[in-house]
Each structure stands twice: as structure tokens, then as C-alpha cells.
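pinning this so it doesn't scroll away 📌
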Amino acid sequence: FPMGLDLNSATIEEIAELPGVGMDLAELIVEYRDERGEFSTLEALKDVPGCSEEMVERLRMEGVTAEAVGA
């Protein structure tokens, strides 16, 4: 996955490649994003069922971001 990946613009395939995510959770993340709009922060990922605080921290250390473009 590319460094600095933004969850608001990433594809399911890109998200699935992130450590600890996988295809099933990537689909949930994109479905959540499509239904509720862009993530305003990486912490908002914890609202997605199956996303733990530990996973959010791991993604932050990998350089993943969630910058809401429309904000």
C-alpha cells in the first residue's frame, strides 16, 4: 500500500492491503464511508464495526490518514 494512504480516497483493494484489515473489513469501511460520508479523522474509523483502537493506532503508525476533503 502507498505511504500516506487516505481512507477517504482509497479503494477497497488499497484498504484491504493495510496491516490487520483484509478484504471483509475493507468492504465494511468503504460501505460505512459511502453511507455516512468521509471520515473526518482517523479516530472516526473506530465507529466502523470490527475496527479497534489498536488497529487505528497501527494504521496511524503506517502513515494512513483520513482527511475529509469536503470539510
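📌 and the second one:
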Amino acid sequence: AIIHQTARRVSRYKQVFTMSRFREMSYEEISCELGISVNTVKYHIKSALVILKKELGTFLCIIFAFYPTLL
């Protein structure tokens, strides 16, 4: 049950993040379309960015290790 809830939450973060970054929708537009508050939209985007940072952190370290000129 906990895994299912976590997966559902992460799925919502992804949905909100995609709407914001790739569909270029405002927080208000996302809020209206999904029926959630603007503060919830902000929270989901912040949470998605935290997950991305964690996931890409290791990847970026490896890239910079092999290609230090990118720094």
C-alpha cells in the first residue's frame, strides 16, 4: 500500500512538472486543470525538482569525471 501511494504521488509530481516545464502552463492553469490549489502545484514542482536533483546528481558527477572541461 505504501509503495502504491508513493508511486501515485511521484506520478502526480511528474504530471505537474511536465505541464509546467514542457507545456509551459502557469501555476494557475495547472491548478484549474487538475482541480488542486496553486500551493499544491508549487509543492509538486518543488518535489519533482528534488527527485530530479537526486537522480541526476550521480549522473552529473560521472559526466564531469569523464569530461572535466564541461565544468
